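Hello Y.,

Per our agreement to keep a running log of every chain we model this quarter, I'm adding this entry. I've kept the format consistent with earlier entries: sequence first, then predicted structure.
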Amino acid sequence: MDSAALATAILEGDRRALARAITLVESTRPEHQRIAGDLLERLGCADRQAIRIGLSGTPGVGKSTFIESFGLMLAEQGLRIAVLAVDPSSARTGGSILGDKTRMEQLARHPHAYIRPSPSQTHLGGVARRTREAVALCEAAGFDIVLIETVGVGQSETVVAELSDVFLLLLAPAGGDELQGVKRGIMEVADMIVVNKADGDLKATAMRTCADYAGALRLLRRRPQDPEGFPKALTVSALEESGMDQVWSEIEALTAWRREAGHWTARRTQQARHWFEEEVRQSLLARLHTAKARDITTQLMAEVETGEMTATRAAARLIAELWPETDAAAPAADDRRAT
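Predicted structure for the entry above:
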């Protein structure tokens, strides 16, 4: 199937075509990348937009359970839901379990839902490198909401905020106090903090945790893209399916305000600039894997290992060798350490 036929099938909501397209954009083969690029350009003319919801949190906080309960509630309202779940890849073998469909068994069977797990591979930030393109494909296929589940991240992992319109940070009861809440990093980019597992013996603890973070959010500097009262903290129980309607109500209120105030379009424009710069960086890194670069790297690595040259100077020499027209920081004279 060529890119034109694939684009037509995706615009008609064909799930098999969507799955094939996501496989194409995730492929590293040059011929697949060419087809994927043409496909994305064709679909870009459709100008369909979904609400992109990023969801992050530490492993074990209940992200998959929350997404299933939340997704089922939205699907029962007639909304079409796409879930892009990113699984961690092994640093040793490169493999991924990709078991999110198993965890979201009920949602996976719903006719209004589509779940696509992807490996994170070597990409940092809790998402896969081509998640942004996968989001665009889901929008073109007519989904109303795209949920982006990260691998489970820490304070500094904020890449998912550059993919989403609304970013939810999921926390467990007793997940931190007010001081933890004012730490810079992921807290600064969250639009809503959702304390999960507010049920049974943990309900009181979840309420205290929510109050701690609500107080912490009031201490953070207000962002221009937030209406009064945002960001805010809420409690839910994914197991008992309680609190989901309130989360959705707050998301609707936030997105409506941002659209009216012009922040929605401005944010998406800023994200497009971010991903253009990211593609430039990734393309430059890819050039370091050419045969010429590998030969120079091997030679310089040997000198670094023996202590003849520092890592900093070796890196500068590599850049100067590959791009001699640039003003690299390589020293003009002797690079080697004094003995």
